[in-house]
């Protein structure tokens, strides 16, 4: 079969691979729609180290091709969404409420990390009963593919932020994860959602997804602006959706004592992530710092699909570009340069 | 001053009373708008026992008339919302996270219970810095008065129900508290909100406030209908907003194992509230039963007022009738008979 | 192989059965030590309905005989503890934090319920990687077998009771689960643990396991006694470890507003479990009622085994009788009549 | 009256001051026993900036001298413990569950910070009903004074660490707060408590208070040692009780994915507190970082006093030195140099 792979750091190609086979607990899925993630591009760039001919991609929906002997919930022909994170549900970490960390840090992240990803004619799903969900008939593949990562990750950041009804939230950076964090904050009943973003298209989408205020850091001093918007009190919760030391620091500065900093950004550089000591109350201001990695699992996927089915979220507004699978390399190039106002490029496998 | 009082069980009147005075931590407020609560009518009927000439009412907004020596946040002339529940914030129960239970069960409920209520020319607020909030200029008195009880109580029921994003919720009875529980469930990001109600006007409001489905118990068997709507699984959370054994029982029946029953209904009759043993999994199905009494406090009030100020909730759709203070007895009569499709009668003190 | 079975309601026997075989995710274990549970006796009595030739028993440790193709953590010859509850870890309920409810209410309870139990020469363990744990070399089989149910269940009740450091707890009934709930309360740092019990031997064990006070309900009025012991305030948490309407009612009466009633007793009779309406604050006193079913899983088992390995708990004081497997029927008889001060009879399979 | 004050940075003296007076919600207390805290010495050294003639000290018990008009719980002559942190219980932060942050970061910390402390013949207590507790007759003043800060702070760190029964914990540094965090971990039912400390006397006390293992960082590599002790998995929770970048970094390194780092150390230096990026799972390993400031309040004090009254904790083993009030300057000198194996110097005011 054809697979879009990372041949080595910096090099991608479409190559021929053997079709995957399902062990007892697994399924093989033929993707219909996929989305390219910025982290895919980082992977090609070497962010997680060298890989040889690993198939790329972790966001996809498709049709079940075959299932293992122990699979009870799915059969060939089923239309399914597959979590970007596919935990080992029996692992101690999963039993402890942290499935995304199964067996090791970030251990639930398998696609295009420790095994082949989804950008191929077929892909393999471990613990398929637990890691896939049926797509309701009223939900399109294009919408459904957003539950696999973007919605789960962004909403998860908002959930971990423990936002009270009527509370105040600042979301730093409005890429697709940040936009879904903004939507997640709105879904939790926040009273005021402040989006930090400078790109007009993203500002506009932030408002579409529920931002009450947009702070453009190229025009105002971000921390001052947020403190002003909150009558000098700071926010109940700040969500870091960029993965930079600068915004992480601002998150701590704008969060009120007793508030929560929810980090969902991938911090890709530097030896340390810096907590500003004074703003952190010298370690005693009860500004908790929490992190999360895209919650996976059938239950989670079904809950997110329900939101789509009931028309409560429209993630497809983030689809800025569309490519056939044969042109996937163009999507990666664009995602790398972030040109043309790209947010999410959709890959069509049909 | 004029006060609308319960002279004794079953008897109300407007009488002349001395104006209240503020102790060091108190404030005196002149009400501008109030709402009659079904519990006021129950009080007159004897639900909490005999009272003599106690001023009725606990839902009001108004203008600060005077403040005690220790008050720092308010001054005469300020436009304020006052919580229906006015806890003693230094009490052990409040320190334990249960301010509504300060000093005794339901101890935060003082108005028209252990001291004069708000249906008078002036009323007294204990721990005023902690129990009032300024009303934003963009929020009307009529909207603001809903934060004092209905929104706080109904939303509180939804918050205690611990609804996951995309989860399923059933709300039993769509009186004003139930309607606000429905809205609260929607605000928490529920994927499917099922409202149980038979009165057309209330069904319509339930949909306005976020119900995805309405179950009319006069037309279908409620439990079966909810199980069908949830593919036989039951809901993640059920909210009891009526206070009857029948609906409480149904709440436990429709909640999935591991789910939450959030009771906010006042159970006014019978020696026992009945948990159906089998549906409760013989005491081992992890169907938790939680209860709450209207969260009060400045922080809470401000968060709810923020939702009004940002236009995220419009509670005034529940105002079905309007009365001048001098006609308040009519409002009570109507609230008692529940005629004319009454939901909430607004009292105008101007 | 020989198996001790329930032939039908009220009838037990040792019969010959085929040895179980391991599917891909399973293991076959040869038990070395087991414990008879009161629920085993109830099962024989018909509590969960008719069964035909089902092997009894759910508390056992042993040696791995064989493993399925997907098993990574264990190999034949390993000395293991097996949870009485063996959840399906990929099920939605488990993903939701309720593994004991996997797939249906109490669905994690499989041994001697929906499949053969452990009182045989060999028994079958589903999802063995997730549902067994190695026994540390310093821990005896006799001690280890207590982690499979009694410690996990009793401690779990204490954990769900959400006891604050220095808080007050009442534990109703000091059978083996109640004793372990008492120990669990002590382990959570309770300031005052009140055990309700009338049998001298159990009172003595309650004190051994951490009770600060013992209330003998045959000598004093239980509720009054507990209120006196807590200066009239009631306890932060009450644990129901009997499964009777009478003690459940008392639990609610002695719990302070804002406190927790943690039910771990199996309620075997009656249509309803009764909540006393007034003591429950008419449904608004924030007295939460939570329930649980023995937490299972490798992580849980390992944590409990660690307590044994470090000498922090000695459950073997509850072993009042010992029987060889061939005499297991005597153990059941004694457990039924509760004669001879029996608490737990140990079964030796060697 | 005589008061031991900080005249300015680096200068202390006993001076004559006017006796404090009680406002409506206040009490005046005559201290009987006090403890010097390392933070007192830091304050004199300028850690919180310049102060002029502020009375030092925040850990004391004593006898009520007078009370304000609104005080209901106490009267002159009562023997009381006073929290080191005396929150404004009606403040929004307290209403939000963060009383120690009332009105501003660390705003509950008033003694010797924003008002006179306790090292004087008399001291003033704000919101006295909420911030003091009666000392049970069976508890000595010397024991009781430890609840005001050391026990509450150390235990609080353990509580925030969310330690499961049987879980693993590492406590970095065994000064008095670290020792009480070690005891707190033991009180929560930890399965393995690892204390990091090099001073023999403190190692010995750590074992007395519940450490199962002691890691001497002068002899072994701390992180390696802790990973070895936990079979390479890392701990469920790490408690930072020193306030240094080096130990904070180690805390993150030894905590397993999904675990908690509970910071209770005062970070006194540097612009940033450094999170090691890789060990933190690039911001996605769900290693939460939480902080706390000594929980105060009557309820908290009573719960801790109950532990003393029941004989469950003996904090007096930390009293290494005793001084009369007139010799308090010697205690400060010794606390500064940390000579003579000092842990806590007790001040006797009689």
From TrEMBL, chains A, B, C, D:
The lineage of its organism: Archaea, Methanobacteriati, Methanobacteriota, Stenosarchaea group, Halobacteria. Keywords: Metal-binding, Oxidoreductase, Zinc. Residues 7-343 form the Enoyl reductase (ER) domain. The keyword Hydrolase does not apply. InterPro entries: ADH-like_C, ADH-like_N, ADH_Zn_CS, ER, GroES-like_sf, NAD(P)-bd_dom_sf. GO terms for biological process: small molecule metabolic process. This is Alcohol dehydrogenase zinc-binding domain protein. The keyword Zinc applies. SMART domains: PKS_ER. Belongs to the zinc-containing alcohol dehydrogenase family. It comes from Haladaptatus paucihalophilus DX253. PANTHER family: NADP-DEPENDENT ISOPROPANOL DEHYDROGENASE, ZINC-TYPE ALCOHOL DEHYDROGENASE-LIKE. Its cofactor is Zn(2+). One of its GO terms (molecular function) is oxidoreductase activity, acting on the CH-OH group of donors, NAD or NADP as acceptor.
